[in-house]
Design goal:
112 residues; mainly alpha; two-stranded antiparallel ribbon; 5 helices
Amino acid sequence: VDSNSDGEIDFGDFERSVRRAYKASYRLSDKELAQHFHLKDKDNDELVNCDEFRQLLHDLGYDNFSTVQVDRIFQQVDVGKKGKINCKEFSKALRLLTASLEWLKGGSGNLG
């Protein structure tokens, strides 16, 4: 995200990161999202924990959200409060994150 490696994320860095995540969410089919999900499911229990979820988001370009924001989204979609989410809950989390990105797009008018 920090394109010039100065230790700070300026608006241009942020905008590029949001744009990349926004576009990535629309490029992937449900099947492709499921494939990404299963790659991070290390123990093959059809569930991912918050760390695996965070890595999934990073791999898909959703790296502009803070750890606190990602944790909150994870807790919101972890309906069983088991500390792990399934692929359906993961898809719901992506919809929530994409809605956030759409809100940002509407706010700046220049992310598409």
